[in-house]
Design a protein that fits this description.
The N and C termini lie far apart (57 Å). A hairpin with a 2-residue loop joins β12 (247-251) and β13 (254-259). The protein has 15 helices and 20 strands. The strands form three sheets. The chain has a nine-stranded mixed β-sheet, covered by helices on one side. A six-stranded mixed β-sheet has the order 15-16-20-17-18-19, sandwiched between helices. The chain has a five-stranded parallel β-sheet with strand order 3-2-1-4-5, sandwiched between helices. The protein has helices at 18-29, 46-51, 66-70, 86-93, 101-107, 122-134, 150-156, 169-172, 199-207, 276-291, 297-305, 333-342, 380-387, 399-409, 431-443, and strands at residues 10-14, 33-38, 58-61, 74-77, 97-100, 113-117, 140-144, 162-166, 182-185, 218-222, 234-239, 247-251, 254-259, 262-267, 314-319, 322-326, 347-351, 370-375, 393-395, 415-418.
């Protein structure tokens, strides 16, 4: 395991999002001289700056200065700023170190960390795992990319039994010594190719979750991920498609978990979550929990009670015999593919948003289950070019018009699925805001 270098007296925090604000607070509490920089001006940052009232730091807003990056030995960067940004690359050449909030927090956390990454299913699996642990342990912290930065755990002064953290590829780009006791890789499919030069580069970022592990640690990986390469931790596998001698797998209507001679089985229908992708999420969570001694009745009770999360194949309502589902969290093609595989034929797919560079052709084999495609957003021309020859396609200027068109196209017994395949940032501030807008439109039909 790598030794973490000491935190220098002067630190630059690049980006004042939720994690950046918490980083400034933590560094100030540690007695460091903190400079914070953001491309946004003070007016746009009124919320974060209000949170930082009374916290000693120096602000540089309305743009980044190269000199600020050169003048600091350590830069703690927002995950929204690519690690190969020209200012960061220049700072590294000048001798600066660049880390993220996850790396900083982990250096100050003594409790074991369970880290979960993957293209899809991270938040669902992280939340379910948190519920499984909370059923047995009195204090469990669940955070990271799921919404509550890890530095907040450090700031809280809590001493949880375990820290469960969702970790994105962006956060893994800037680790140095981050070492989860249990590292989980759910899946890897094309995503964020607007940020990474290739799928291989994106995959490499995800694989870094295992980088600092050693023999006493655990690495949980989907059996469907090929060419893993060497992993120092002990590997455990889960699969919704293959039977396994050890690990977690499906056989008929049962989910089986086998770890070190301990075997438990659970009925799949205990959980209300639908789809093969959610079966994989459940298998992974049950496997991780059993490794930590959580199984049997406590696990069964949690499976029954966990209803899933908003914006993930979320049933909204039925209108004139047509069922509407909100899958706004589907910000890549694979997520939409899994949603389509979870639903019956007769789907009107509403999609589009900000293009992320992946291929939409993966949907073509499912064309028979899609009666029509209604497109919105910046990615509309590209999606139509790749899928228009396979699926009857319609374009609309906004989400409300798209929903109205979908209802006109649908017949009793059909499903309208809002599963964008794209990020939200051309029209909405987040996938949550986009999903909320879809729900309101459907409720008003």
């Amino acid at each position: 395991m790598k030794d973490a270098p000491p935190i220098p007296d002067r630190v630059l925090v690049a980006g004042l999002g939720a994690s950046g604000v918490s980083v400034v607070k933590l560094l100030a509490r540690l007695g460091k001289r903190v400079t914070a920089t953001d491309v946004k001006g003070e007016e746009e940052l009124s919320g974060p700056l209000k949170e930082l009232e009374g916290v000693p730091f120096e602000g540089r807003f309305g743009g980044h200065s190269a000199q600020d990056f050169f003048d600091h030995e350590l830069i703690v960067v927002s995950p929204g700023m690519a690690s190969n940004h020209k200012l960061l690359e220049a700072a590294r050449r000048n001798g600066s170190r660049v880390i993220g909030e996850i790396e900083l927090a982990s250096r100050l956390i003594e409790e074991p960390i369970i880290g979960i990454t993957g293209t899809n299913g991270k938040t669902t699996t992280t939340t379910l795992l948190g519920r499984l642990f909370s059923a047995v342990f009195p204090d469990v912290f669940v955070g990271g990319n799921i919404g509550d930065p890890l530095v907040n755990y450090v700031l809280s002064g809590r001493k949880a039994r375990v820290v469960i953290a969702e970790i994105s590829s962006f956060q893994l780009e800037t680790i140095e010594t981050f070492r989860p006791r249990t590292a989980i890789l759910l899946n890897i499919t094309e995503d964020h190719l607007d940020r990474y030069p290739s799928f291989s580069a994106y995959r490499s970022a995800k694989m870094r979750i295992f980088e600092n592990q050693s023999a006493p640690d655990e690495a949980l990986v989907s059996k469907e991920i090929e060419e893993m390469g060497p992993v120092a931790a002990r590997p455990y596998y889960f699969s919704a498609r293959s039977k396994l001698e050890e690990g977690a797998f499906v056989d008929g209507d049962l989910l089986h978990v086998r770890v070190a001679g301990s075997a438990f089985s659970y009925r799949r229908d205990l959980s209300p979550l639908v789809g093969v992708h959610n079966t994989e999420n459940i298998l992974c969570a049950l496997l991780a929990a059993q490794i930590w001694g959580i199984c049997g009745e406590a696990a069964e009770k949690t499976l029954r009670e966990f209803k899933g999360l908003p914006h993930r194949i979320e049933f909204v309502r039925e209108v004139r015999g047509v069922r509407f589902y909100n899958d706004s969290k589907a910000t890549n093609v694979d997520a939409t593919r899994k949603a389509l595989e979870s639903l019956n034929n007769g789907v009107i797919l509403v999609a589009g948003g900000k293009d992320k560079g992946g291929s939409y052709g993966f949907i073509a084999p499912l064309a028979r289950s899609v009666k029509a495609l209604v497109l919105i957003g910046e990615a509309r021309p590209r999606i139509e070019a790749e899928l228009g020859q396979h699926i009857p396609t319609y374009g609309e200027e906004g989400l409300e018009k798209a929903v109205e068109r979908a209802l006109v196209l649908a017949r009793r017994g059909d499903t309208v699925l809002f599963s964008p395949m794209c990020s939200s940032f051309d029209m909405f501030e987040s996938y949550k805001a986009r999903g909320d807008a879809f729900r309101k439109i459907v409720e008003a039909l």
